[in-house]
Amino acid sequence: MKYVAPVNVAPLALIAGYVGLASMLCLPAPLALGLGIAALVDLKKKPGKDGAGRAWFAIVTGGIGTLMLLIAFVGRLFH
């Protein structure tokens, strides 16, 4: 059930996961990256909470999206 509904998931990890999903559109990618990192730090302080998978998802998708934004920005500078 915890894979379908967020049961016992830290709120910051939940938010990071959803922003990570939205970061596939590239716009909130840096936010997803930051929230994912913050969620992992928060989860270390709360050992009884779940959500590390969502936090890592936000970090990976946010990192990829941020990299794509940087490449697009640099490409426009030299175009």
Automatic annotation (TrEMBL):
UniProt xrefs under Pfam families: DUF4190
Domain DUF4190 per the UniProt entry, residue ranges: 10-71
Segments crossing the lipid bilayer: 12-43, 55-78
Protein name according to UniProt: DUF4190 domain-containing protein
Keyword list, A-Z: Membrane, Transmembrane, Transmembrane helix
